[in-house]
Amino acid sequence: MTERIADIRTEAEQAIAAAGDTEALENVRIQYLGRKAELPNLLRNVAELPPEERAATGKAANEARKALEQAIEQRTRQLAAVELDQRLERDRVDVTLPGDPPAQIGRLHLITQTQRELEDVFIGLGFNVAEGPEVETVYYNFDALNFDSTHPSRLLSDTFYVQPTPDIFDPNALLLRVHTSPVQIRAMEAHPPPLYVVMPGRTYRPDNDATHTPQFHQLEGLAVDTDITLGDLQGTLLAFARAIFGEEREVRMRPHFFPFTEPSVEVDVSCFNCTGGLTADGLRCAICKGEGWIEILGAGMVDPNVFESVREHGYDPERVQGFAFGMGIERIAMLKHGVPDLRMFYDNDVRLLEQFG
After folding, report:
1. Is the confidence at residue 299, as pLDDT, over 70?
2. Alpha carbons 314 and 183: distance in angstroms, whole number
């Protein structure tokens, strides 16, 4: 019996050495060490042998089994290393090739797209684009724009001041601008009339809901010349509304109040989603709430007191007139593209952002 075990061991070792891959080696393992193989059956049947043969046969069979297991393990490592090298050579990746699919190169955010579209409209109407600092002084943000000393916008609850304990009446106190209107003053200080300029940029207010965020974007406009009237303002805003919302749009003005304009107006555009407040299927329009008009911005004729702040730069309120307007860029984007919540612009959700390539 021990001679047969030796023959099996020799035969198995030769088969192990001859195995060309791990699959062939697994077949060898099953053939010589599997449940139905001869060597394991010999071990299971040792108890049936004559007593004088049991010890020698059991020892030889165990030694053969262990030797074959070690040989298979060693040969497995050898074959696995060879196969890995072959696979790496076969599946070599050229990292200089473009991705598959090619990586997206990105796109402008919808807010940036809308801002540039607005700038293009007003550049086409003869306006220039101006920018100013986002950290402003009380003077430029409030005083020069004719804000009363008791105006609620000056309060700590309505404005982000830079200093921890600011003097809100100090003209040099620093704050995050609440509108881009300070750029109007800076533009007039830098350029004598006539002046036609729009001022886009980030602004800051402590608000946070579906239509307000602590940081948002505005685009304001200023036109100063001789003989400018409210009719010029209306014509300018009509051209803007039709360029952004469609050629069928109309605008209307409603009386309002702003510290830096007099008279002041709220400006509405006729709804682009319905007719007279009702949709094509006779339902109340969800965009204009059945009014047929959508509020889009505030405007008015520049208050003479604002010109007094820059009189020394050529803006004599007895000689020049002007109009100003301001709109939220996010609001324009929401209306034009049907985004229901302003905060979605800042969620960085690519499912939303990828819709506007």
Report:
1. yes
2. 17
